Amino acid sequence: MEGTYNSVELRGVMAGAPRFSHRGGGSDYYTFPLDVVRLSGTADTINIIARRDILDAEPGEGDKVYIRGELRSFNNRSGVGHRLVITVLARELRTEFGDFLNSVELTGTICREPIVRRTPMGREICDLMLAVNRRYGRSDYLPVICWGMTAKQTAMLPVRTRVRLSGRIQSRKYLKAEGDELIEKTAFEVSAVQLQTVEDDGLGRIAEPIGPYPAN
């Protein structure tokens, strides 16, 4: 993972046709959901954003594709849905058969106090918010979960600690009370498989915490 700051590789099935998202930097961007199936058979549905020019081959709903890109976050100011939206910005996209793939490598700064909790089955989890620098001075704020012994060790790390991790993107359903109703929602996070502390990002830049950060 040396030198890698924000890298995502996915192979999955397009769960919807690309639809227009927005225009930026002179390019049109399209979005679609990608289903990546775990070994357990559960599918993680991941939101993809891609420029129109890398969709020229026009893959469609039901096609299996390979995607290489980066994790992105942005604040949703519409008042509808999550305040923090997590997507994958595709840099490369092609139709490709093969096993499902879900791989993430990140280097960033812990920018919120780690939170330890237990699942209903009694497993310990540590929640992190990681600030990951982009090339041009901005940062993405990405929720991360660690499990078991890694969770215990990570829980003791102070804010502003730099870490390097590998894992996968995870989507999970949960119920949230809105008035008298329970509404099913989907949270997105990085499930860390390996995590280690690092001394420096190699570029002399440290992302500063800018909280507060929305909970999943």
Textual characterization of the structure:
The chain folds into 2 domains: 6-101, Beta Barrel (OB fold (Dihydrolipoamide Acetyltransferase, E2P)), CATH 2.40.50.140; 105-198, Nucleic acid-binding proteins (OB fold (Dihydrolipoamide Acetyltransferase, E2P), Beta Barrel), CATH 2.40.50. The chain contains 1 helix and 12 strands. It has one helix spanning 148-154; strands spanning 6-14, 19-24, 27-37, 43-51, 64-75, 84-95, 101-110, 115-118, 124-133, 139-147, 162-178, 181-198. Strands 1, 2, 3, 4, 5, 6, 7, 8, 9, 10, 11 and 12 form a 12-stranded mixed beta sheet that branches. The longest helix is centred in the C-terminal third of the chain and has 7 residues, at 148-154. The radius of gyration is 17 Å and the shape is globular.
The succession of helices and strands, N to C, reads EEEEEEEEEEHEE
Helix count from the secondary structure assignment: 1
Query: How many β-strand stretches?
Result: 12
| Unreliable stretches covering 5 or more consecutive residues | 203-216
Portion in strands = over 45%
The coarse overall form would be globular
Oligomer: single chain
Helix proportion: under 10%
CATH architecture of the largest domain: Beta Barrel
The CATH class of the largest domain is identified as: Mainly Beta
Query: What structural class is derived from the secondary structure elements?
Result: mainly beta
The CATH superfamily of the largest domain turns out to be Nucleic acid-binding proteins
Note the main sheet: 12 strands, mixed
Mean pLDDT over all positions: 84
